Predict the structure of Lrp/AsnC family transcriptional regulator.
Amino acid sequence: MAVNLDATDWAILAELQRDGRIPLAELGRRVSLSSSATTERVRRLEALGVVTGYHATVDLGLAGFPLLAVIRLRYPGSSHQPLRQLLAERPEILECLRTTGDDCYLLRVAAASMAHLEQVADALARFGGVTTNLVYSQPLPLRGPAGPAGPAAFAEGGGHDGSAAGAAFLP
């Protein structure tokens, strides 16, 4: 069940998604709250499970993984435990989504070389058909929502500052 978030909560979430290491005093200034009120709000969002963690963003190329691929996997079997085991063993598989449609899984994979990517694709092919797509660029990195869901929330500027929802994430 969704948590009821007000405009200030959404403003805090937008700022934390931009910079999870922002000092609480600066966060409070940006959302027009005192430091103590900001701290209370952030702790509440964490306690409710809305904020689930804070993460570093890694430049994959500089970390030795210049190739990024999306691999689609058709998984004909009904026992998914062997695949889950492989996912736990392969840190270059960054994300795995179970989906509807012809492909059962969508995986984001970072690779050091084409040979490395082929090795990962071959390991996945044990479970079913794979289709590999190389990523040229990432015009929109993964982000969280900037405002409430639903058509009414986006009518006449759904962003916390009166702008269109999501505009805060555009460069």
Q: What stands out?
A: The chain has a mean pLDDT of 89. The longest strand covers residues 67-73. The beta strands are 67-73, 93-98, 105-111, 130-134. The chain has two domains: 1-56, 67-134.
